[in-house]
Specification:
single chain; 99 residues; Alpha-Beta Plaits
Length: 99
């Protein structure tokens, strides 16, 4: 299943209701499961982003649906990266790591 790294920034609305953030994360976990995926890790962060979420989804379509549905609530803006495991990257580059 593809892995995604989601960089999250709270909107003004999200900050105004920051105490609801854990509940919103739990709702996102449930949404992910309903789409066949899973949030495997979530971290509150300091710096440019307010959270980093690691998630898996069965397809880009499912990932996009979950992210758009979450974003439509107005509490967060996201930037999403498709994560390719290093071993798969070596395979893509044609490098044999078994030497």
């Amino acid at each position: 299943m593809p892995t995604y790294i989601v960089l999250v920034k709270f909107t003004q609305k999200g900050m105004e209701n920051i105490m609801d953030s854990p509940k919103r994360l739990e709702a996102a976990r449930k949404l992910g499961k309903s789409l066949g995926g899973e949030i495997t890790a979530a971290y509150y962060t300091m710096g440019q982003y307010d959270m980093v979420v690691i998630m898996e989804a069965p397809s880009n379509k499912a990932a996009i649906e979950g992210l758009l549905r979450t974003g439509s609530l107005g509490n967060v803006k996201t930037e999403t990266l498709v994560a390719i495991p290093a071993e798969k990257g070596a395979e893509i580059f044609g490098i044999d790591l078994t030497m």
